[in-house]
Amino acid sequence: MAGMVGAMLVLLVAIGGFMLLRSVTSDEPEVEVEAVDYLSAVRDQQRIDRRVVYPRTLPEGWKATSIDYVPGRQPSWGIGMLTDEGTFVGVRQQDESVDVLLDQFVDEDTTTEESLVTPKAIAPEWVGYADEGGDTAFAAEIRNETILVFGSADAADLATLVNLLTFAPVDVTDPGAATWSPDVESPSPR
Q: Which of 29, 57, 94, 162 has its CA 20 to 30 A from that of 14?
């Protein structure tokens, strides 16, 4: 019996040593996050007369990585993105209070920060929020829905995205572009 216990201990030490050696000598696999075609998803929503917010373009190096749509009486819409530095930015549109969305997507303990005033955006003023972990957010209420721009990216990246948001129809003849011109203001739902 003592020999069997000894053999088990030797086996466990050997397995532990192998795992330690492997963790020291092997590289973590680098996982490349695939981009999603968010404009196609926007077009699909517009075809069913759902008015969704989206960035008319993405800044250079950014990519959309996820789309979230929950249908129903209180539908919700979201796009997840990575910046050129690999930090997360999300856009959420939902018929919920700002507090509920902050609790769900940022943190239950957020503080109010400096507002973003940007007259040419879809809302002229966005209230700023932050948590202790470094996440930031801007929120605006438009037509009984809350638009939340949030993430681990810095406030400047979030502000850049706020200024790119639109409700404009996606041009179905050009699958890569929204019908937008820098000379024409984004349609405002106010």
A: 29
Asked if residue 16 is part of any domain, the answer here is no
Instruction: State the residue range of the domain holding 139.
Output: 38-166
Q: How far apart are CA 149 and CA 136, in angstroms?
A: 8
* Burial grade of 7 (CB within 10 A; 0-12, 13-18, 19 or more): exposed
pLDDT in tens, 106-140: 888 877 788 889 888 899 999 988 888 888 899 99
Binned at pLDDT 50, 70 and 90, residue 189 comes out as: very low
Per-residue pLDDT band for 187 (boundaries 50, 70, 90) equals very low
Taking the C-alpha atoms of residue 96 and residue 29, their distance in angstroms, rounded to an integer, is 39
Prediction pTM value: 0.74
- The letter for the amino acid at 22 is R
Compute the distance between CA of residue 24 and CA of residue 95 in angstroms, rounded to an integer. Answer: 49
Contact 59, 29 (CB under 8 A): no
The answer to the question of residue 19 being in a domain is no
Q: Give the SS3 label for residue 186.
A: coil
Are the beta carbons of 70 and 180 closer than 8 angstroms? Answer: no
Token couple for 149: 């721009």
